[in-house]
Amino acid sequence: MPIITAEGPKIDDLEKRKEFVKTVTAAASKYFNLPEESIIILIKENSPENVSVGGILISEKDTKNND
Amino acid sequence: MPIITAEGPKIDDLEKRKEFVKTVTAAASKYFNLPEESIIILIKENSPENVSVGGILISEKDTKNND
Amino acid sequence: MPIITAEGPKIDDLEKRKEFVKTVTAAASKYFNLPEESIIILIKENSPENVSVGGILISEKDTKNND
Amino acid sequence: MPIITAEGPKIDDLEKRKEFVKTVTAAASKYFNLPEESIIILIKENSPENVSVGGILISEKDTKNND
Amino acid sequence: MPIITAEGPKIDDLEKRKEFVKTVTAAASKYFNLPEESIIILIKENSPENVSVGGILISEKDTKNND
Amino acid sequence: MPIITAEGPKIDDLEKRKEFVKTVTAAASKYFNLPEESIIILIKENSPENVSVGGILISEKDTKNND
User: Fold this and answer.
1) DSSP readout, chain C?
2) Is the pLDDT of residue E67 over 70?
3) Are A53 and B37 in contact (CB under 8 A)?
4) What is the pLDDT of residues A42-61, one digit of tens each?
């Protein structure tokens, strides 16, 4: 503990992910005043047809934007 | 924010999902007294072999029901 | 199961909450094609100093709006 | 309700999973003083490239250990 | 990691909680084949007016049972 | 969306929290390639008697360390 969960779209760029977890781990270690080794990050990938904003699935918004 | 997370079995019917997020978004907007545009819904699909009720995996219950 | 978790600000109006859980339960029952009795809703209250949008705590936004 | 969510690596052994949910359900029933039938367990599988400990993705740790 | 989250009613009995986390940690260690030291458990207390089952707040069910 | 949830001990320092959400929001915006305005962070405070590591409540570990 502490545990950070990041819910967002799927990001394939492994280098960006390495940088993201490194930055967030350092920020969490500083905030919680706990060693970096105790910081866990879970990255949760969500597909656009399983997320809605304002009552509309993101997959629907994407389709409308491409029409 | 607000954020509604719906954990349940996988449902493939896109039209039903569109209706579900529309109804829940309207209900959440009314309850939290916040604009629909601020309401996020995450739909999380769970396979039956990863969920238990009463100590038995749902996939096991299904198998017993089909015997 | 299914389980719906609603993360949002604290709402004290019990009648509104009863209506909210009733509407969302009916929508979830219809979507997941499962009996209402199986639908669980967890309401999670978040105080404005523990939520940020766009990198700013909601409590800070409120303060700025009242200046 | 109650609901137990187990976030961890993917485990394919179905017999071990049956035993796990059985043990945890009994422990939860005893702790919450509620019938086993009311205990729900969700098992969430995380791939090593989506989890970090100490700022390093578990997939990276595995690679270093195998060099 | 792994991380177990237990959502349920508030239980004040500290001895029961110690036993609960011990049992669940041992079960998780065995299931995930990881050392007990790596198992984290978060216990989340929910008040009955913030949980609904079957569209009815648990606090309402309690009231009806006591009439 | 995206949504970052930070589970950890209660931290009272508001300035540290402002800095934390600012840093994590910038990192998430860069990682997900989405505007900062779309990044939501929920900070969840856990008391030591509701968290266990290695099967022991953190409140118990603290007591042992102070003996």
Assistant:
1) --EEEEEEE----HHHHHHHHHHHHHHHHHHHT--GGG-EEEEEEE-GGGEEETTEEHHHHHHHHH-
2) no
3) yes
4) 999 999 999 999 999 999 98
The boundaries of the domain holding residue F62 are: 3-66
Query: With contacts defined as CB-CB under 8 Å, which chain C residues touch D40?
Result: 1, 3, 40
Q: Average pLDDT, stretch B15-40?
A: 98
> Which positions ≥6 away from E47 have C-beta within 8 Å?
E9, E10, E59
With residue D3 as reference, give the H or E element that holds it.
strand D3-9
Query: pLDDT for F22-31, tens place per residue?
Result: 999 999 999 9
- The CATH number that applies at residue D41 is 3.30.429.10
Per-residue pLDDT, averaged over C17-33, amounts to 98
| E strands in chain E | 3-9, 40-46, 51-53, 56-57
E touches B, CB cut-off 8 Å, minimum 3 pairs: no
Q: How many CB atoms lie within 10 A of CB C46?
A: 18
Cα–Cα distance measured from residue B41 to residue A20, given in angstroms and rounded to the nearest whole number? 24
Q: How many Å apart are CA E12 and CA E18, to the nearest integer?
A: 11
CA–CA distance, D53 with A25 (Å, rounded to integer): 8
3-state secondary structure at position F23: helix
CA distances from C40 to A47, D3, E56 (A): 24, 9, 9
Measured between CA atoms, how close is D59 to chain A, in angstroms?
A: 10
- The ipTM of this complex is 0.95
Is residue F36 pLDDT above 80, yes or no? yes
Please name the residues between 5 and 64 in chain C that touch chain D, using a CB distance below 8 Å.
40, 42
Taking every pair of Cα atoms in chain E, the longest distance, rounded to a whole number of angstroms, is 50
Residue with the larger pLDDT of the pair A52 and F61:
A52
Question: How many folded domains does chain D comprise?
Answer: 1
